[in-house]
Amino acid sequence: MNNDLKTLISLSKKHYENFPVASFLLPKNKKQDIAIVYWFARTADDIADEGQFSANERISALDEFEKNFLASLNNSYADESFKILSDVVLRNNLNPKYFTDLISAFKQDVIKHRYKNFDEVLDYCKRSANPVGRIVLNLFNIYDEEAYKYSDLICTALQLTNFYQDIEIDYTKGRIYFPLNEMNHFQVTENMFEMRENNYNFSALLKHSINRTKNFFSIGEKLLHYLSGRLKLEIKWTIAGGEKILTKIEKNNYKIFENRPKLNKIDFISILLKSIFNK
Q1: Pick from 251, 37, 61: which is nearest to 131 by CA?
Q2: Please, where are the H alpha helices in 186-263?
Q3: 68 phi and psi, to 5 degrees?
Q4: Which among 42, 225, 229, 45 has a CA at the least distance from the CA of 151?
Q5: pLDDT band at 271 (very low <50, low <70, confident <90, very high)
Q6: For the chain, which domains are there?
Q7: Alpha-carbon separation of residue 32 from 66, 89, 210, 276 (angstroms)
Q8: CA distance 242 to 239
């Protein structure tokens, strides 16, 4: 493995503390390809989020990132990273739209900070999370529409779980991913985010949201019927990690402010054992 590839794989793992990303469970060649895909996603996400830049500067940088990606598919490389990425895309016959959809979601994060209803949230998840699941399936030569449907549910559930885990972090960036019509229904105001109020109304909204997400995980688990071997174990582990985060929030009576749920080493071990022995 050359130094550039090692660097990209290392960068891909930095941000993922709660869910296994290209873990030791996967075959080495697949693990490397998946790690490169995550590098792409994390890099675009960082352009949208990190540093002190204006919205216009971020959008411009994402446009350039997208242009470099598309150019790499035609043997024009901005740098070695895009050459490595294009090799993964072309060698595995991956759909470039999955990658440009990810970029479109990160652009949306720059300019859209509120969501009128859950359909708008789902549309965001369709581009911010679901493409990654489909790419992973394709890397393992799975191109089944039913499998895609269940994978989308799992990826959406993971994205929603991340929203609930990072409520405080997202609010500091000016973002609220709870639908405004649901906030109104539960009488939750933006002031509650600012004051970090763990009150009854906010808990009710969070409980409603988590129950819906758990249902997505439950239905999405049907994806496992389409998988085998190490990939099946990896996806079981990933689902269990997301569900564990939701359980931690529930056990803390939905008091999410000042108590961000995280998975520790014991959690990871117990989740792995459950994934192995719970057939």
Answers
A1: 37
A2: 190-195, 200-220, 229-251
A3: -65, -40
A4: 225
A5: low
A6: 1-111 (1.10.600.10), 113-279 (1.10.600.10)
A7: 22, 12, 33, 23
A8: 5
CA–CA gap between residue 86 and residue 133 (Å, rounded) = 18
Displacement of CA 39 from its chain's centroid (Å): 13
> Counting Cβ atoms within 10 Å, is residue 234 exposed (0-12), middle (13-18) or buried (19+)?
buried
* Structure-token pair, residue 159: 């994205």
Answer whether 197's CB lies under 8 Å from 168's CB.
no
Report CA-CA distances (Å) from 266 to 120, 236, 262, 274.
36, 17, 11, 12
Closest CA to 213 of 260, 259, 153, 273: 153
Query: Does 166 have pLDDT greater than 70?
Result: yes
pLDDT in tens, 47-93: 999 889 999 999 999 999 999 999 999 999 999 999 999 999 999 99
| Residue 36: half-sphere exposure toward Cβ, Cα within 13 Å | 24
What per-residue string of b and e applies to 122-131 under the rule 16 or more CB within 10 Å gives b? bebbbbbbbb
Query: 97-134: per-residue pLDDT in tens?
Result: 999 999 999 999 999 999 999 999 999 999 999 999 99
Full DSSP string of 75-132 = T--SSHHHHHHHHHHHHTT--HHHHHHHHHHHHHHHH---BSSHHHHHHHHHHHTHHH
